Structures are given as C-alpha cells and as structure tokens.
Amino acid sequence: ILSSVAQQESETISAHVTLGLEMKMKRGEMVGDNKAYGYNYDKENKTITINSEQAPIIEYIYDRYCKGIGTRTIAKELSDMEILSPKGNKRWSESTVLGIIKNPIYKGDLLMGKTYTTDAITHKRVKNYGEKNQYYVKNHHPAIINEEIWNKVQEILKKRSSIKNGGRMKGNYSRKYAFSSRIFCGYCGSVFARRCWASGTKNEKRVWQCMASVKNGMEVCPKCK
C-alpha cells in the first residue's frame, strides 16, 4: 500500500512539473539545458550567446553542405582538421553533422519539446515524434547562419532524404536500371548514374559515375572514381 501511494505521489508531482514546463514553453520561455555546439549557454539567466571559436565550424559545415558535399565527407574533413567534436572526440560522426544541419537554433530560432518523459519512475526520455506538443520560438537569440543559407540547406536535405527514403530518385531514369538512384558518392553525397564509355566501339563499357563530377567537372568532387 505504501509503495502504491509513493508511486501515485511521484506520478502526480511529475504531471504537475510537466504541466508547468509546458506553460513556460507556451509563453516562449526557454526550458531545459539548451546546450548547442557553437553557442554558450548561461544556466542562471537561461540565455544563449555565440561562441566565437566554434561558430566558424558551424559556418564551415553549412557552407560545405550548400556546395554539395555530403555529411559523411564533412565529418571526415573535420576529423582530418583535428577539430574536436561537440562531445570532445577527435572523430566526427555523420549523425553529428546531420544534427547540426537540422537544428534551427543556428538561424536564431528555438524548438522546444524535442523529447519527453515516458515514465515518472524511471524518468526515461524519448524523442518526440508528435506524441506531445512542441513549441517554436522565432528570433530567440543571435543567429550564426542567415535565413537564406538555412533554407537552401533544408531544401538540399529534403531532396536527398526523399531520394534515400524512397530508394529511388524521381525522374525519367528513376526505374531504368536496378541500381538507379541507389548508389551515392562517398565524398560529396551526389547520386551515381549509369553511363557508357566508348559507345559503339569494341571497347564499349558500362560504368557508374558521380553526377556532380560529370556535370560540373572533377574539381567539384576530385576524389570520386
């Protein structure tokens, strides 16, 4: 009986805390520990300011992605440059770069309610995929990335996601071959396309090539083959 009462009290407190936090988010107040690479977070005042040492790294990531370089290649470049990751590791992961690209905090906006607590006893938190309300605050703090670059990056990201999720790229050649829109360049992330070398000769050969280098020259993606 005592255990049941204690559990019920814990659940009641948790519900009250959750309600209080939700009311704060509705008012546009920052809730939780909003640490982000490229910014300094003041716990007492709950304010976010730009970190002058890390901000150029954020700009580098967005600039490279705008130029068609994939997240895996960007992560490799940052590792080779011996820049420590947000967790202090020597190697950057593709998911870390992708998380930075997707985070609206870098254009000065704040998204709250990304995670929520599923259990009042274990306090387990999971990602919020729409099960709970989320709150978006525009122009909350100084931006590192301007609106134009942010929108361009999101368009590229959306286009690549639609290709990967669907398995094939929409277009005249999307279903022509078994590997159409399924092979991607490990250096720049561009899709590979099937081409013919020495067409009509005895040396005719079918190959798959990075379309970024085919369309724009090898200087765009010099390491591809």
- Return Rg in Å: 23 Å
Alpha-carbon distance between the termini?
A: 70 Å
For the largest beta-sheet, the strand count, sense and barrel status come to: 2 strands, antiparallel
Portion of residues within helices: 25-40%
Quick one: how many beta strands? 8
Mean pLDDT across all amino acids: 80
Structural class: alpha+beta
Which band does the percent of strand residues land in? 5-15%
- Shape from CA axes? elongated
Task: Give the SSE map.
Blueprint: H1 2-26, E1 39-42, E2 47-50, H2 55-66, H3 71-80, H4 94-102, E3 110-112, E4 115-117, E5 125-127, E6 135-137, H5 147-166, E7 192-197, E8 205-210, H6 211-216
Antiparallel strand pairs: 1-2, 3-6, 4-5, 7-8
Walk me through what this model shows.
With 225 residues, the chain is of the alpha+beta class. It has six helices and eight strands; from the N terminus they run H-E-E-H-H-H-E-E-E-E-H-E-E-H. It has helices spanning 2-26, 55-66, 71-80, 94-102, 147-166, 211-216; strands at residues 39-42, 47-50, 110-112, 115-117, 125-127, 135-137, 192-197, 205-210. Strands 1-2 form a two-stranded antiparallel ribbon. A hairpin with a 4-residue loop joins strand 1 and strand 2. Helix 2 (55-66) crosses helix 5 (147-166) and helix 3 crosses helix 4 (94-102). The radius of gyration is 23 Å and the shape is elongated. Residues 166-174 have low confidence and may be disordered.
